[in-house]
Amino acid sequence: MIKAGSIEKGMALLIKGQPYIVVEREFVNPGKGSAFARLKLKSPQTGQVLRETYKTQDSVEEITVEDRDCQYLYFDGEAYHFMYTDTYEQFVIPQQGFEDMQYLMKEGETYRIMFWEHTPLDISIPYKVVYVVTEAEDAVKGDTVTGATKVVTLETGLRIKVPIFIKQGEKVLINTETKEYIERVNT
Amino acid sequence: MVLSGMLNHEQIEAARFRSIILRNLRMFFDEKGYLEVDTPLLSPDVIPESSISFFTAPFHNEFLGDRDLYLVPSPEVFMKKLISWGSGNIYQISRCFRNEEQLGSLHNPEFTMLEWYTVESDCMESLNVMNELLHALSPFDTRGICREKPEVMTVAQACWRYAGFDLEKTQEPRELIQTALTLGLSVPPDVHTDTWEEIFHRIFLTFVEPELPKDRPCFLTEYPKQIDCLAKDIPGTPWKERWELYLGGWELANCYSEETERSRVESFYRRGYERVKHICETKGRNMPHVDGSFPGLFHQDFPPCSGTALGVDRLIMTLAGQKKIQGVILFPLSDIL
Fold first, then answer.
1. Segment 59-88 of chain A within 8 Å of chain B by CB
2. Which of A6, A24, A29 to mutate to probe the B interface, most B CBs <10 Å?
3. Per-residue pLDDT tens for B163-176?
4. Does the beta-carbon distance from B205 to A58 stay under 8 Å?
5. Which of B140, B190, B238, B247 is deepest in the core (most CB within 10 A)?
6. What are the boundaries of each domain within chain B?
7. Contact, A154 vs A134, CB < 8 A?
8. Cα-flanking dihedrals φ and ψ of residue B328, to 5°?
9. What is the pTM of this model?
10. Is there a contact between B101 and A27 if contact means CB atoms under 8 Å apart?
11. B4 pLDDT above the threshold of 80
């Protein structure tokens, strides 16, 4: 059991017997006395979203999870195929509940996956990741407006807004949480 | 230094937009004849409010000695002093400081507040002023929310509409616990030790507030009396003369018909003092210095008045269509720490 005040985004909690991942946590101080933790949780199995509000002093049940390194192989249109890097055993994670991952994971890369009793609960992606720009229109010559932006496509299919000087084939650092451009990476 | 996903030129644009909004806020109140005031940010004492944690600044002086000063959590105390001196209608755009708040998409420990007081007035008249202000700002609203007709509903109506229960008939904690359970909320086994206000907030924050309209301004009026504050009671009801404005789903402004009866302000002070004392004892902290003379401001000639506090950063964020407060504050603390 942990205090609701120490709940963090990404934690796994057992609520009414079901595992949920905390996707949003906001502390609210609405009046005198107690502070509250307002949570948005997601069931990894069904994708169902649950809202709960606890006093920060309430106890909640955190579940014991196991992190394992897994190599991402490919997406078949419905599920992600992975392989445990230690046993080479393959398994799939249905896309439901992990829709965003299609545009963030790179084939062949290793990601840390959170398991609870053999059920994958969460795939963690580093906060900042370098991606190759695979499609970008050339900047129009003479377009010297400071700070002009354009939309490019990255190797994973993710489309993002970048400064106009970014060219196809270049590498960019992306904030995977907000899916926003941070900087160009020179190699 | 991380730049909150913003490019440098976007920060300059944000500064430009902010400047336009601040200018328009001032123009609006100047044209209405409110006096702009500028009160201290450093104060020797505070109002005992248990929900607020203060920033303390050590003051050193050869003659006056060493003592703690506080960065004001709001300009309320000084502005009410001005009203008691006969200032008439006043407004202020001021920095405010609140400690121990999370550095989130809606919070920065240092933020900008617009606070205005209208004398010989009540909160419903301030609601009209707020509406006029929204109208005046609507040309700058990139999402058009301010151009929509505002929705005005009481807290009880909102509870009924979004959570299907009668707030007036659930004035006992056990009735409200039953409502929480019926709604499917997870409550701890010791929920019966909660105050009515705490159970109310469990329900309100989970089922009501997230459902409020986001495409138009939404005023929630008539707040439960159990939420202790310096707003007047509405006689014969369990409510207070208070409203809050939600814009784009975010709590933006809070307004009271101010309590001006000295004895009631005094008892609010006593309750607040006890709560703050309890928190300080539990956390092993020094008790902040409380200005005992504050209730004395409410003398016979203190005019009936209504006060509104509006979060300027959140306002700018909503108008600019930004999702995070960091997008409208230059050098937010989360970036410079």
1. 59
2. A29
3. 999 999 999 999 99
4. no
5. B247
6. 8-41+74-150+216-336
7. yes
8. -120, 0
9. 0.81
10. yes
11. no
pLDDT at residue B161 greater than cutoff 80: yes
Residue B261 near residue B35 (C-beta atoms within 8 A): no
Contact flag B202-A32 (C-beta cutoff 8 Å): no
Distance (Å) from the alpha carbon of B121 to chain A's nearest alpha carbon: 25
Tokens of A21: 């991942």
Q: How is domain B8-41+74-150+216-336 classified at the architecture level of CATH? A: 2-Layer Sandwich (3.30)
Q: How many CB atoms lie within 10 A of CB A110?
A: 13
Q: Would an 8 Å CB–CB cutoff place A169 in contact with chain B?
A: no
pLDDT one-digit tens code per residue, B236-263: 999 999 999 999 989 999 999 999 999 9
For chain B, the first-to-last Cα distance in angstroms comes to 9
Residue A176: strand, helix, or coil: coil
A51 contacts chain B (CB < 8 A)? yes
Q: Which residue has the tokens 């959170």?
A: A114
DSSP one-letter code for B263: H
Q: pLDDT, tens digit, for every residue of B133-158?
A: 999 999 999 999 999 999 999 999 99
Q: How far apart are CA B43 and CA B37, in angstroms?
A: 16
> How is residue B77 written in tokens?
């105390």
Rg, chain B, Cα only: 21
Give me the residues of A, 29-48, that contact B with CB < 8 A.
29-36, 38
Distance separating the N- and C-terminal Cα atoms of chain A: 47
B102 by DSSP, 3-state: which? coil
Measure the CA angle with vertex B144, ends A145 and A39; round to 5°.
100
Domains present along chain A, CATH in parentheses: 2-62 (2.30.30.30), 66-124 (2.40.50.140), 128-185 (2.40.50.140)
Q: Do A182 and B207 touch (CB under 8 A)?
A: no
Identify the CA nearest to A70 among candidates A114, A101, A103. A114
CB-based contact B112:B101 (threshold 8 Å): no
CA B304/CA B119 separation, integer angstroms: 6
Q: Would you give the distance in Å from CA B57 to the centre of its chain?
A: 23
User: Which residues in chain B are closer than 8 Å to A34, comparing Cβ atoms?
Assistant: 198, 201
Cα torsion for A159, A161, A162, A168, to the nearest 10°?
30
Decide: A125 and A176 in contact? Cβ < 8 Å.
yes
Distance, in Å, from the CA atom of B10 to the CA atom of B149, rounded to the nearest integer, reads 31
